[in-house]
Design a protein that fits this description.
Blueprint (H helix, E strand, L loop, with lengths): L2 E3 L6 E3 L1 E4 L13 H13 L4 E3 L8 H9 L8 E6 L1 E2 L8 E2 L3 H15 L4 E6 L9 H12 L3 E7 L3 H8 L6 E5 L11 H8 L2 E5 L36 H19 L5 H10 L4 E7 L3 H9 L7 H12 L2
Parallel strand pairs: 3-4, 3-12, 4-5, 5-8, 8-9, 9-10, 10-11, 11-12
Antiparallel strand pairs: 1-2, 6-7
């Protein structure tokens, strides 16, 4: 396993992180909680140190399950959660609220859910443009002073929003969607993060399941799986002809991976962490057997030729 710092901070993480969205009920379909706990323990034993969750994942249930799994193991992990969203009841849609009051209540609830006194990293889940970014950043400074968080960061922030936030607080990272079907952060966000020494936590590293290599033209999603709407963060990844074309590209990537004796999922993860601005690539797992495959990607250092061949599959006309 490789380990990297978030920018210039003293926060160190494994380059593969455990994404907690799939363990929030109501988002990714049914799962076995005991099996998820075993997967978390397998991840720790395999050298994965960063575990990411959010208050909205399962409307608190995702945090509680992770807290249960980390009992007696808290000091071995970098624990991350996200706040700044509010909802009226479990299952309801959420709205952005980065007010000091809401973040303070949310952090306290996340700490209770996770059964911990502090978070290693606390993030604003989505930018709240209804107020100056100085407000949540000033709250973060107080949380840090009080020992409730070691570091603060943001998620889904643009370069411009990062710049404004950095005027008030030393952000450790920006969590953004980044994978072989989504190069969007490369144009502005990544150059900014590189210049200002802000770490990048990449989510959706396996294109929300597309790059696991297990999907087919007949793939469908459960009623409580967010992918059922066939789009992912503004991209029609699973929709109609686009989905079929994406599956053809995944087949081509499988062939490239097979030439090196590896899986397409390992190829996808190795590609994400090959970008030096990326500190950690998040990948969700709900079964212990998925962990070994994910961890193996950390040892694959792509050559320049391999990286170019991989990108060529995705940008081919």
């Amino acid at each position: 396993m490789q380990y990297r710092n978030f920018g210039n901070s003293d926060l160190v993480t494994s380059v593969i992180g455990f994404g907690g969205w799939p363990m929030g009920r109501g988002h990714y379909g049914a799962f076995d909680e005991d099996e998820v706990v075993r997967a978390i323990h397998a991840a720790i034993d395999s050298g994965i140190t960063l575990f990411d969750t959010a208050a909205v994942y399962g409307w608190g249930e995702g945090e509680r399950l992770l807290g249960k799994a980390l009992e007696g193991k808290r000091d071995r992990v970098v624990l991350v959660s996200k706040g700044g969203l509010e909802w009226s009841e479990p299952g309801a849609g959420s709205e952005r609220n980065s007010s000091r009051e809401h973040l303070t209540r949310g952090l306290e609830e996340s700490l209770r859910n996770l059964n911990t006194d502090y978070l290693d990293l606390y993030l604003i889940h989505w930018p709240d443009e209804s107020r100056p970014f100085a407000e949540p950043m000033e709250a973060f400074a107080d949380f840090q002073r009080d020992g409730k968080i070691r570091h603060g960061g943001v998620s889904n922030f643009s370069a411009e929003q990062l710049s404004e936030s950095l005027e008030t607080f030393p952000i450790a990272c920006d969590q953004v969607g980044y994978h072989l079907f989504d190069f969007r952060p490369e144009s502005e966000t990544f150059p900014f993060c590189r210049e200002r020494s802000v770490g990048v936590m990449a989510y959706g590293s396996l294109a929300h399941g597309l790059l696991t290599g297990t999907m087919t033209p007949d793939t469908t999603f459960e009623a409580d799986d967010w992918r059922r709407n066939l789009t992912a963060f503004g991209q029609p990844l699973f929709e109609g002809d686009t989905f079929l074309e994406n599956l053809r590209k995944v087949d081509d990537l499988k062939d490239l991976a097979a030439d090196t004796g590896r899986s397409v999922a390992q190829l996808a993860l190795a590609w994400v962490i090959s970008n030096p601005v990326v500190t950690v690539a998040l990948v969700g797992a709900r079964r212990p057997e998925e962990i070994e495959e994910n961890v193996a990607a950390a040892d694959w250092v792509l050559t320049e030729e391999e990286a170019e061949a991989i990108r060529a599959v995705l940008v081919a006309e």
